[in-house]
């Protein structure tokens, strides 16, 4: 028997795989979120080849994370129940919605419909548990409550056009309005110290508003295409533009916080940085088209390459981190079924105001 086939080697390979799988937390859905929205932004910029490459990466990640989720449901229910109470669990919903949106834009409406059904089922299955176990003050990952809800509205609005389904555009208004309400709910409880101590997910404070802006723009465009809401079209454009302005106001705050409090080590929550950065480009493309403002579109054409650069850095960090785990240079920070999983989505400090709702 060769060394490559020895029991010791097979056991080492199994241990390496186990370390990697154990290190994949609920927040890993942000990999699909971030990759998918950068793919969408590139598509809107006309860079079809690079957009499709990232679409493939997002699709592979979605399938892999789906298999891991199924495995935990079957073999590690204690950890699954812990993770299902965290807002970060909703990254799976958002990732599914964003991936479905990109596939629908590709012309694969059937895939978008399937993923919309899956995303809605996941959202219905998770949101009650997340809200029941809600804690304050909230952190950046808490805004995924808005992101996941708005991802349903975004995919529905895109499919409404491709399927000429007026009812679907009406339906998209429900998660759109609910997502905005969730945003206010989280923002009023947000601990702004997360801008200094967050590990990447603090960017979702702006990204959650950005996806609401995308949805407003998409609904505006879809309404015009389908000949709906004729009397309210100007109001829809005003809402989209107003949300874009509010979204942009977050950007200098987030950039200054990033420059002031440097966080150079890889963390899975860094994918929750990629998503908002990509979403700033996507929302600017959509709103620029909806309100016919070339300056907004010009910003998007520059910012999309910032998003690509951030994606490359975080993707490289993820690969390096994975190799370290496989080689045993690092150990998973959260063991299967352990309550140590909880701090990843809660403040990294103890405070008497952190209470369950």
Question: What do you see in this structure?
Answer:
The protein is mainly α and about 350 residues long. The chain has one domain (about 25-320): Voltage-dependent anion channel (Glycosyltransferase), CATH 1.50.10.150. Helices cover about 70% and strands about 0% of the residues. It has 13 helices and 2 strands; from the N terminus they run ααααααβαααααααβ. The chain has helices at about 5-20, 30-45, 50-75, 75-85, 90-105, 110-130, 145-160, 165-185, 195, 205-225, 235-260, 270-290, 295-325; strands spanning about 135, 355. A two-stranded antiparallel ribbon has the order 1-2. Helix 7 (about 145-160) packs parallel to helix 10 (about 205-225). It is globular, with a radius of gyration of 20 Å.
Structural class: mainly alpha
CATH topology: Glycosyltransferase
CATH class: Mainly Alpha
The number of domains is 1
State the distance separating the first and last CA atoms. 59 Å
CATH architecture: Alpha/alpha barrel
Query: From N to C, what is the helix and strand string?
Result: HHHHHHEHHHHHHHE
β-strand number:
2
């Amino acid at each position: 028997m060769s060394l490559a086939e020895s029991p010791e080697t097979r056991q080492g390979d199994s241990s390496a795989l186990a370390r990697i799988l154990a290190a994949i937390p609920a927040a890993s859905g942000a990999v699909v979120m971030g990759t998918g929205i950068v793919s969408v932004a590139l598509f809107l910029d006309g860079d079809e080849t690079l957009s499709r490459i990232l679409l493939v990466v997002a699709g592979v990640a979605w399938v892999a994370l789906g298999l891991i989720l199924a495995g935990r449901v079957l073999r590690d229910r204690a950890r699954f129940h812990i993770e299902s109470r965290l807002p970060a669990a909703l990254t799976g919903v958002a990732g599914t919605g964003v991936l479905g949106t990109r596939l629908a834009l590709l012309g694969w409406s059937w895939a978008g419909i399937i993923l919309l059904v899956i995303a809605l089922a996941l959202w219905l299955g998770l949101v009650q548990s997340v809200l029941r176990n809600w804690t304050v003050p909230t952190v950046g990952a808490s805004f995924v409550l808005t992101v996941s809800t708005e991802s349903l509205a975004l995919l529905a609005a895109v499919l409404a056009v491709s399927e000429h389904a007026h009812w679907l555009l009406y339906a998209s208004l429900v998660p759109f309005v609910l997502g905005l309400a969730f945003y206010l709910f989280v923002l009023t409880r947000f601990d702004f110290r997360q801008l200094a101590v967050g590990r990447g997910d603090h960017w979702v404070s702006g990204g959650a508003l950005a996806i609401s802006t995308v949805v407003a723009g998409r609904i505006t465009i879809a309404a015009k295409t389908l000949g709906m809401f004729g009397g309210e079209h100007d109001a829809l454009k005003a809402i989209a533009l107003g949300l874009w302005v509010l979204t942009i106001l977050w950007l200098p705050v987030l950039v200054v916080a990033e420059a002031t409090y440097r966080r150079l080590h890889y963390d899975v929550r860094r994918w929750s940085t990629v998503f908002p950065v990509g979403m700033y480009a996507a929302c600017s493309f959509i709103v620029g088209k909806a309100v016919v403002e070339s300056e907004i579109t010009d910003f998007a054409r520059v910012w999309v390459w910032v998003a690509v650069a951030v994606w490359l850095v975080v993707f490289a960090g993820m690969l390096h981190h994975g190799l370290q785990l496989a080689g045993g240079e690092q150990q998973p920070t959260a063991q299967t079924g352990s309550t140590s999983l909880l701090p990843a989505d809660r403040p990294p400090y103890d405070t008497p105001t952190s209470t369950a709702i």
